[in-house]
Design goal:
About 30% of the residues lie in helices and about 20% in strands. It folds into 2 domains: about 1-220 and about 410-465, 4-Layer Sandwich (Metallo-beta-lactamase, Chain A), CATH 3.60.15.10; about 225-410, Rossmann fold, CATH 3.40.50. Strand 2 and strand 3 form a beta hairpin. A 7-stranded mixed sheet has the order 6-5-4-3-2-1-22. A 7-stranded mixed sheet has the order 7-8-9-10-11-20-21, covered by helices on one side. With about 475 residues, it is α/β, with parallel strands linked by helices. Helix 3 runs antiparallel to helix 7. The chain contains 13 helices and 22 strands.
Length: about 475
């Protein structure tokens, strides 16, 4: 048995890991899109470190595009096996991959118009995949329930346990009959956080022999929930009431947007939300919120109890969901104090770029970053404290206040991740750290060693390791 790291190796996006069993059967764990502007990674989304036609099956941890976003291209390039995921992940992928395809198509269209207009001597660009490719790829999905061993083939079973990261997210455990013995191989996927709104707490994985573990926030701890809510409310009041400005929040359409809306819904129920309009400006967010409502099996006890008095935790009087482009443009032209929640979370695509373009140079406004952003995305540049930001070919002054609240992140901090895999201490033979920058991975490796996990590997992209 051997593992090859085909994505998210010393990077935070593009998750993909290829497991090959002793008889040659291949299992692809995730197939994510690289999201960032690193020149060394420019060809990642177009190229493969394996032949898609030779992959026997795929297992998807969750629907985020950095974990699922190349699936249509995988199928387009020859994969014809089954794709195993939870039911909620299946539902989310059906809308998220279509949205991703639209972005690929629009990006190619924009580039080609520029090439033709300027009569450049370069080949016209094709989208990575189209909406038709997504429709074809969805035929290969198999929805699975949590906490049940599902046969992948004779002698290979998969178990999904709730990872508490986003709706439908799961850790993956493989039970493999090989050479007369039973072996367990684990992949944490993205580890969520305990005691967060909406979703159930992450559930421990079975003990495994080898484990691939994420490490996004391997060097830090998040602030606690009560302090987080107090700070969020303070930012709202200072921006929208005292300065009469806009609070602009880049947020992922799935997970982060619904959590923020739920907290605002609670503020409104408690009578402490200022009387200002709140806009969710993202068609994908609107559709994703509907999917949330269709999967209450993923909700925790707290929100179920809350729904006894408020049947719609994602809606209140001053909340407006926008889908039409003209509505979004009107919002940019308005000077009214308001909260705008728009995707993408890294501000590298979607309507949020227009809101930043129109609001970033206004000192009355606040840009609130609520999760990890790769350093070379607009969100990452704002996180770094840069005085300017280039948007749509124009350099804009960052006069707006920039706030960062990593506590909103759906990724566990170093303590929460270490707690999640604590039952592996003394059992796991080797842990592979992925989905993190090298600096944070090295910090997390040292932290895990202090907790009793000693054999830790930080693989590079393309590394193949024989597991025996």
């Amino acid at each position: 048995m051997k593992i090859r790291f085909c994505g998210a190796a010393r990077e935070v996006t593009g998750s993909a890991h290829l497991l090959t069993l002793s008889d040659g059967f291949t299992i692809l764990l995730d197939c994510g899109l690289y999201q960032g502007g690193d020149k060394e990674m420019q060809s990642f989304n177009d190229d493969w470190l394996f032949d898609p036609a030779q992959v026997d099956c795929m297992i998807l941890s969750h629907a985020h595009i950095d974990h699922s976003g190349r699936i249509p291209k995988l199928v387009k390039d020859g994969f014809n096996g089954l794709i195993y995921s939870t039911h909620a992940t299946h539902s989310l992928c059906s809308i998220m991959l279509l949205d991703s395809a639209k972005i690929q198509e629009k990006d190619a269209e924009f580039t080609n118009k520029r090439i033709l207009k300027k009569k450049l001597k370069q080949q016209l660009e094709e989208p990575l995949y189209t909406q038709e490719d997504v429709t074809e790829a969805m035929k290969y999905f198999v929805g699975c329930s949590y906490d049940r061993w599902v046969p992948v083939r004779n002698g290979v079973e998969v178990l999904f346990k709730d990872a508490g990261h986003i709706l439908g997210s799961a850790s993956v455990t493989l039970r493999i009959q090989e050479n007369g013995k039973t072996r367990y191989f684990g992949f944490t996927g993205d580890i969520g956080r305990p005691d967060r709104p909406i979703l159930r707490d992450p559930q421990p994985m079975p003990e495994v022999e080898f484990l691939i573990c994420e490490s996004t926030y391997g060097d830090r701890d998040h602030i606690a929930a009560p302090a987080e809510k107090d700070k969020f409310l303070e930012i709202i009041r200072e921006t929208c009431v005292e300065k009469r400005g806009k609070l602009i929040i880049p947020a992922f359409s799935v997970g982060r947007t619904q959590e923020i809306v739920y907290i605002l819904d609670q503020f409104e129920s408690e009578g402490i939300l200022p009387e200002i309009p709140v806009y969710v400006d993202s068609p994908l967010s609107v559709n994703a919120t509907r999917v949330f409502g269709a999967h209450p099996e993923c909700f925790d006890k707290e929100i179920h109890e809350y729904m006894l008095s408020d049947p719609n935790p994602f809606g209140f009087n001053s909340l407006h969901y926008l889908k039409e482009v003209e509505e979004s443009k009107e919002l940019n032209a308005s000077d009214e104090p308001c909260i705008i929640i728009s995707s993408s979370g890294m501000a590298n695509a979607g309507r949020i770029k227009h809101h930043l373009f129109n609001g970033i140079d206004n000192p009355r406004n606040t840009i609130l970053i609520v999760g990890y952003c790769t350093p070379d995305t607009p969100g990452g540049i704002l996180r770094s404290g840069a005085p300017t930001l280039r948007l749509f070919g124009e350099v804009k002054m960052v006069n707006a206040r920039v706030e960062v609240m990593d506590s909103f992140s759906a990724h566990g901090d170093r303590n929460e991740m270490a707690d999640f895999i604590a039952n592996q201490v003394g059992k796991v033979k080797k842990v592979f750290l992925v989905h993190g920058t090298l600096e944070r991975q090295e910090a997390f490796a040292g932290y895990l060693k202090s907790k009793g996990i000693t054999d830790i590997v930080i693989p590079e992209l393309g590394d193949t390791i024989d597991l025996g």
